Automatic annotation (TrEMBL):
<feature type="compositionally biased region" description="Acidic residues">
    <location>
        <begin position="55"/>
        <end position="79"/>
    </location>
</feature>
<feature type="compositionally biased region" description="Low complexity">
    <location>
        <begin position="82"/>
        <end position="93"/>
    </location>
</feature>
<feature type="signal peptide">
    <location>
        <begin position="1"/>
        <end position="27"/>
    </location>
</feature>
<feature type="region of interest" description="Disordered">
    <location>
        <begin position="55"/>
        <end position="97"/>
    </location>
</feature>
<keyword id="KW-0732">Signal</keyword>
<protein>
    <recommendedName>
        <fullName>Outer membrane beta-barrel domain-containing protein</fullName>
    </recommendedName>
</protein>
<dbReference type="InterPro" id="IPR030820">
    <property type="entry name" value="OMP_myx_plus_Proteobacteria"/>
</dbReference>
Amino acid sequence: MKQRLCRVVVAATAMFGVAMMAGVAQAQEDDEGIVFEDDVVEEAPVDDAAIEMEDDPAIEMDEPEDDLPEPDLAEDLADIDGPTPAGTEGPAPVQTEEQVSWQDIVTVVRKPFLKQQRTEVTPLLGITMNDNLIQHVQYGAQLSYYLTDVLAVSAEYFRYVPTLREPYDEVAFQARRLPAVNKYQQSAALNFSYVPVYGKFAVLDNYLLHWEAYFTGGVGFTQSEVIPRDPAFQPFNNFLITPNVGFSMRFFLTKFLTVNFGLRDYIFVDSFEPANRSDYATPEDAKENADSVLINNLMFQAGLSLWWPLSFEYTTFR
C-alpha cells in the first residue's frame, strides 16, 4: 500500500515538473516577439575572420609608428578629386578670413590743379551789363596770391572806354533834354576770394574738364567824370570809394593756364551834373551842388590766367 502511494506521488510530481517546464518554454517564445527600445542592446556582428586571426599564432599585429605625419585636411580634399596632373597647380587652400593688401585699397583721383602758394596773373576784359545810356568797356589785370587752395588775396586795376548808346540820343530828341551821364576813367581794388565749389564734366565723352566757382569781395576806388550837357561848361571828376562783390568760374586747361568768366558788381555813390548848371560858374561849385545817386555798375568779365610757378608738387600720399 505504501509503495503504491509513493508511486502516485512521484508520478504527480513528475507531471507537475513537465507542466512547469512547458510553461517556461512557452513564455520565452512569447517574449521574443516583444521589443522594448530602451532595454534592447544591439550586439555588433562578430567577424569570423577576426576570430580565426586571434586564434592563429602565426599572425602578428603591427605596432603604430610614432613618427607618422599629422593628417592634412587640404591634401585629403585634393585626393578626393583625383591626382593633380603634372605641371598644374592644385586647388587653392580654403581661407576662412579675407586677406587685405595695399592693392585692395581704392584711392580717389587727385585734383589735377593745386593753387596753394601760387601766383595768378589775369588780364581781364569787361563790359557794362546794366546801363542803357552809356556803355563802358574795361580792360586791365588782376594779380592774385593763394594763401591756401581755396583762399586768395588779390589786387586789380582797370581803365575804361565809354560809349554813348542810342537811347541817349533818343531821349534828347524826344524829350528835348539831355540826361545826366558820367563816364568812368579808372578803378582799382583790393579783394579776397574764396573757392567753395569744385567739379568736373566730360567733353564729348573723351576729355574731363575741371572747373571751380568762387566768390570775390573787396573795396577800392573808382574815378568818374561828368559829361556836361553844354560843351561850354567844364567837367569835374569824382573820386568814389567802391566796394565790390562778384561770382566767377574758372576752367582748368593745363597746370599753369586757366580761363575765367564772372560777374562783378561795383557799388558806389556817384555825383552827377546839377540840372541848373548855368547857376554855377566853376566846376568846383557845380560839384558841391551835384546830385548824388547810388550806382550798381554790373560788369561781365573774362580773362586768361597764367600761374606761377608753372607746375606744382603734391605734399600728401595718394
